[in-house]
Amino acid sequence: MTKIWTIAKMSLLENSRKQVFHVLCLLMLTVIAGSVLLSIFTDGTKLKILKDLCMTCILFGGAVLAIALGSTGIPNDVEQRTLYPIIARPVGRAQYVVGKFLGTLLTVSMGVLVMATVFGVLVYSFQHGFDKFLPLATLFALMEVAVIAALATAISTIATPAVSAVVTFLVYICGTIKIGYFGGLIEQATSGAAKAVYSVVYHALPNLECFNLKTALVHSDKVPIAYLVQVALYGLCYAAFVLFLGSLNFARKEV
Amino acid sequence: MKRICCLITMITAALACPAWAHDETEELGHHWADAVYTHEIRLQIVAMAVAVFVLLLGSMIVRRLKSGRTTQ
Amino acid sequence: MSQPLLTENLTKTYQLGKKKLPKTALDSLNIEVPEGIIFGFLGPNGAGKTTTIKLMLDFVQPTSGSATIFGHPTTASSARSLIGYLPEQPYFHKFLKPIEVLSMHAVLAGVDRREIRKRAISCLERAGLSDYIETPIAKLSKGLTQRVGIAQAIVGDPKLLILDEPASGLDPIGRHQMRDLLLDLKNEGKTIFLSSHLLSEVESICDKVAVLKKGKMVAMGAPDSVRSSSSHVVIHTSPIDQDMLERLRFLNVSINRQSDCTVLTIDPKAIYEVMRAMEEIHLPVYKIDTQRESLEEAFLRLAA
Fold first, then answer.
1. Residue B54 is part of which domain span?
2. How many domains does chain B have?
3. ipTM of predicted complex
4. For the residues of chain C, what is the DSSP string, one character each?
5. Record: contact A230-B42, CB cut-off 8 A
6. What domains, with CATH codes, occur in chain C?
7. Which residues of A touch C91 (CB under 8 A)?
8. Are A239 and A147 in contact (CB under 8 A)?
9. Range of the domain at A143
C-alpha cells in the first residue's frame, strides 16, 4: 500500500503541474462564478438554474479532467522513460497502474472540490443556508470521475494518449446516454445480430447517469439510501474491474 | 492523428447534444425511481464478478498446465 | 548461494512489422556473473546490450531461454528487490529535488521508513551531490542528473547493481569519482553489471567482460583472456622516403608514417630481419617497445 501511495503522490504532483489541469479548473470556475449573472431571473428559478449549471460544470469538468489526465499519465511515463527506474523496483505493474489511477483521481478530486466549494458558497449566498444535499451530489460526481479515470487509465495501457482520450470520451458520452439511447436501440432492432451487438455494447458500457444527482439537487428530491448504496458499490466495482483489466494488460506489456 | 481525434471528439460531442440538453429532464433525471437502472446496476455487478472469476480460473488452469509441461 | 546473474540460452526476437521478418536482438545468450565482481558488458550500438538489461529487469519477456537473479526468476518481484538499476539516460520528473527522488525510490525499494531521509542523504553524498540535495532536477546539468541516477540505484542497498552507461555525461573528475565509487561498492561485496562504451574504464575496473555482437556473445572472460595473447614489437624511427618504404613492405611490417617519425609494428619473430634491413638503409632506432593488444583493440577485432 505504501508503494501505491508513493506512486499516487508522484502522479498527483505531476498532474497538478499540468497546464490542462489549471486551464480546465479556471474555465469551470469562471462558468460557476459567472452564473451569478443569472440574477435577472426570479429568486426560485435563479437558484434552480444556478444549481443546474454548477452541477453540470462539476460533472462535465470532472469528466474532462479525468479523461485528460488519466489518458496521459502512463503513456507519458513510458515515453519520457520515467517509468524505468520505478518498475525496476520490487513494484508490481498492477501497483503502478493503481497508483497512477489514484494520483489522477486525487488531482481531479482537488479540482472538483474547489469547484464544489465555490458552488456551495454561491448557493449559501443565494438561499441564505447550506444545501445539505450538495456534499452527497459532489461525492457521487467524484464516483463518476473515479469510473472515468479508471477507464482512461486502463485504455491508456493499450493506446496512445490521443486515442485513449477519444475512446474514453466516446465511452463517457455513450455511458451517459446508455439507458435512454442504447436501450431504445435494442428494442427497435429487427435483426438478431444487431440486437446481440447492441446488447453487448449496452451491458459493457458503464451506467454513468446513475451517478448524476443533479435533478435531486435542483428539485430537492429525496433519493432512497438503498439506491445510493447500490450505485456507490457499482462505481467501486466498475472502477476496480476496469483497473483489473488494465493491470492485466500492462503486466504483459513490453516497455 | 491528433486532428482526426479532435474531429471525432467534436462530432461525438455535437451528436450527444440531446443528452446535455436533457429534453426530458424529469424522466431522465429521476433514475432512482426507474427500475431499469437498478436492474442494470445489479446485472453488471454480477457480470463483472463472473468475468473476474473466469479470468482468474483460466489463468490458474494455464499456469498449472505450463508448470505440468515443465515438470514432464 | 546462487549466482547473482545467470542466463541460459536467453533469446529475444522482435516482430518489427507484419510483413517483415522477425529481428533477433539476442541469440542464445549464456552469461554467468559470479558474486562480488565487476562484470563489463560490451558491444557496439545495436548489439543487444540494452535488450539484455531489459530482459533481466522484466521490462520485456524472452522469446526463449531464461534468466535468474540470485536464483529468482526475473519475473519475480523478489528478484527486483535485490537489484539497483541505472538507466542509460536517467529521467526524473523535473520538478522534483534529488532528495525527493531518492526518498521515493527508497520507499519503493522497501527501505525502513525511519531510515529513508538518512539513507537518501548518504547516497547523494556518495554520488557527489552534497551541494545539490535541495536543487530541482530541472536546474541540474546532465552530469549531475546522471549522479542522481547513480544515487537512486544504490539507495535500496542492492546486492546487484545493473548500470547502463554510468559514466555517460560525466566530466573526467566525475568519471574518476565514479570509478572509485564502483570499486568501493565492489569492496562492500556488491556485484556490478556494467554496460559501457568506455573501454579504458572497463579495462581498469572489470574482473570479467563479455563482448556482444549482433545479439551473439563473441567473447567472455577476464579482460586479459579476451585480449589477444600475442604481442607486437613497435619501433620508432625517423621519417622514411618511398624507396625505404618499398624495402620494408616486403618484410610484412605495418608502417605508420607520422610528421616527425615513423612507427613500425612488426611480429616479434621478424625482428632480426627488420633490424637488418633498417641497418642496410641507415634507419636509426629512436625507441623500441613491445605492445600487447588493448581491450579497445580486442573490442574492435571482435565486434567490428
1. 2-71
2. 1
3. 0.83
4. ---SEEEEEEEEEE---SSSPPEEEEEEEEEEE-TT-EEEEE--TTSSHHHHHHHHTTSS--SEEEEEETTEETTSHHHHTTEEEE-SS----TTS-HHHHHHHHHHHTT--GGGHHHHHHHHHHHTT-GGGTTS-GGGS-HHHHHHHHHHHHHTT--SEEEEESTTTT--HHHHHHHHHHHHHHHHTT-EEEEE-S-HHHHHHH-SEEEEEETTEEEEEE-HHHHS-S-EEEEEEE----HHHHHHHHTTT-EEEE-SS-EEEEE-GGGHHHHHHHHHHTT--EEEEEEEEPPHHHHHHHHH-
5. yes
6. 5-226 (3.40.50.300), 231-303 (3.30.70.980)
7. 80-82, 84
8. yes
9. 2-251
Tell me the pLDDT tens digit for each residue of C55-97: 999 999 999 999 999 999 998 888 999 999 999 887 888 889 9
User: By CA distance, what is C161's nearest residue in A?
Assistant: A88
Average pLDDT over residues C174-189: 88
On whether any CB of chain A is under 8 Å from the CB of B50, the answer is: no
Helix axes C142-154 and C116-126, enclosed angle (nearest 10): 130
- Which among B34, B48, B50, B53 is the top mutation candidate for probing chain A, defined by the most A β-carbons within 10 Å of its own β-carbon? B48
Residue among A166, A173, A207 whose CB faces B41 most closely: A207
| Record: contact A6-C108, CB cut-off 8 A | yes
Measure CB to CB from residue C85 to each of A88, A91, A92 and give the nearest one: A88
Number of domains in chain A: 1
Could you tell me if A94 lies within 8 Å of chain C, comparing CB atoms? no
B15 to chain A: closest CA residue: A173
pLDDT tens for chain A, 255 residues long, are: 889 999 999 999 999 999 999 999 999 999 888 887 776 666 667 788 888 888 889 999 999 999 999 999 999 999 888 899 999 999 999 999 999 999 999 999 999 999 999 999 988 888 788 888 889 999 999 999 999 999 999 999 998 899 999 999 999 998 988 887 777 777 787 888 888 888 888 888 999 989 988 888 887 788 889 889 999 999 999 999 999 999 999 998 888
